[in-house]
Write a structure and sequence with these properties.
By secondary structure, the chain is α/β, with parallel strands linked by helices. Helix content is 45%, strand content 11%. The protein is built from 18 helices and 13 strands. A seven-stranded parallel sheet has the order 3-2-1-4-5-6-7, with helices on both faces. Strands 10-9-8-11-12-13 form a six-stranded parallel sheet, with helices on both faces. The N terminus is likely disordered. This is Glycosyltransferase.
Length: 447
């Protein structure tokens, strides 16, 4: 059992009361990593766990000793394609959503077959946003509870608008709630035929109710895996929306993934000068690595800063040796590297955002899609950084951003905020408890 989970509280089910739990996730590493953390914790409690992940992430997740099964198609292959790079670089939310929905439709038979195989016989199913609809059908067919795991606030609220519609304050609780209705209708229109087909295959009657409404009617909870410091619990959410905090990957898993050791060449470079700015693009594709590196080198020279660039899963390779101001690294342990940095430039993914804020760094967020603009705007409003959409990223806009996050006030705010965030209760233990307790209730899905 990993040391990080050895002290998990003895709640709900006694050790030895094994529960079969299927965790279904889809997307990039950032989408799958929280499920891997949860799978490790549940496995340490003695449960029979299976983790579903897209083919490009399966081998990565399996290194941690979790039983992992492939689901659907290779998401990274599309993001690395010329079409995918151009689409995401455009920042056109409507076009991106339309193409993603088309891809899901093209592969719906594979996705359904994988869901049926992975969820078969599960006592509890935990699903991400992109697998929630099909997983909910499987849970209903088996009479099992389904718990949704969200990495950003997606449930209707009057406090702020849906992140896929706008990040602006509409100054109206009614208008804010209407944005969620718009997204729900769009999502249901895109997925209802696929859901109807899977319901027929599982022997269920047709339904006109969107998945979210059915889950709410069944009284099932959603694990809101983000920090209440960054997003205070919306005032109008019902008790089944459990804001538990963001998951951190344990050190034992980092070691299994080959990310725990500090690279000697990087350590030497860090010690040879002032604390650099961290640059992380997560799983977002970089269409022109040479152009991106030239942009970063220019900004580093103009600002007199050093940059450590984590290419991560964006697969940005250096065509030549970086300039003295730049150091390129692959996937690296955020917990080790970020405290050695002075600020961060990143895409605004939920995991990276929480890691950067927890480390006390002010941010320049260059968002691309999905919840990334939400997190960029959230940090801006909290005084923890600034937000520049990726498609508007230039030498001048990046220089202005770095100047802002270098100001003493921004640095002080980030440090104070990090101290509050680090005091959050352990979200993994809370999630495990809620999942174990869900097995003890009888679920009544609406007819």
């Amino acid at each position: 059992m990993p040391d990080e989970f050895a002290k998990s509280s003895q709640h709900s089910l006694q050790r030895g009361s094994t529960v079969r739990i299927a965790l279904t996730s889809f997307g990039t590493r950032g989408d799958v990593q929280p499920f891997l953390v949860l799978a490790l914790a549940l496995q340490a409690r003695g449960h029979d766990v299976i983790l579903a992940a897209p083919p490009n992430v399966v081998e990565w997740a399996a290194r941690c000793g979790v039983r992992t099964e492939r689901i659907g198609f290779d998401t990274q292959a599309y993001m690395d394609s010329s079409e995918g790079q151009a689409l995401f670089a455009s920042g056109n939310v409507r076009a991106i959503m339309k193409r993603m929905q088309a891809l899901m439709h093209e592969h719906q038979d594979l996705l359904m077959a994988d869901q049926m195989r992975i969820c078969d016989g599960a006592d509890v199913i935990v699903a991400g946003v992109l697998t929630e609809d099909h997983s909910a059908v499987m849970a209903e067919a088996q009479g099992s509870p389904l718990i949704a795991l969200h990495l950003a606030p997606l449930k209707p609220t009057g406090d702020f608008a849906h992140s896929l519609v706008t990040t602006r304050d509409l100054h109206s609780r009614l208008l804010h709630r209407l944005t969620y209705t718009v997204v729900e209708h769009m999502w249901w229109a895109a997925h209802r035929d696929s859901i109807a087909l899977l319901r027929r295959r599982m022997g269920l009657t047709p339904t006109r109710q969107p998945t979210q409404k059915r889950l709410a009617a069944a009284g099932l909870c959603t694990l809101q895996a983000f920090s209440p410091q960054l997003v205070p619990r919306p005032s109008d959410w019902d008790p089944m929306q459990r804001v538990i905090g963001a998951f951190q990957i344990p050190k034992s898993a980092r070691a299994s993934l080959g990310e725990a050791a500090s690279p000697p060449h990087l350590t030497a470079w860090l010690e040879a000068g002032p604390a650099p700015v961290y640059v992380g693009l997560g799983s977002m594709p970089v269409g022109d690595p040479v152009k991106m590196l030239n942009l970063l080198s220019e900004v580093a020279r103009r600002c007199g800063r050093r940059l450590v660039v984590s290419a991560g899963w964006s697969r940005m390779a250096a065509p030549q040796e970086p300039s003295p101001e730049i150091r390129l690294v692959g996937a690296v342990d955020h917990d080790w590297l970020l405290p050695r940095c002075s600020a961060a430039i990143h895409h605004g993914g939920a995991g990276t955002t929480h890691a950067v804020v927890r480390a006390g760094l002010p941010s320049v967020v260059a968002s691309v899609f999905a919840d990334q603009p939400f997190w960029g705007t959230r940090l801006m409003r909290l005084g923890l950084g600034c937000h520049v959409p990726f498609k508007r990223l230039t030498s001048d806009s990046l220089k202005r951003g770095l100047c802002y996050v270098s100001e003493a006030d921004a640095v002080a705010r980030a440090a104070a905020f990090a101290a509050r965030m680090r005091s959050d209760p352990d979200p993994v233990s809370a999630a495990v408890q809620l999942i174990e307790e869900s097995r003890l209730i009888t679920v009544h899905y609406p007819s």
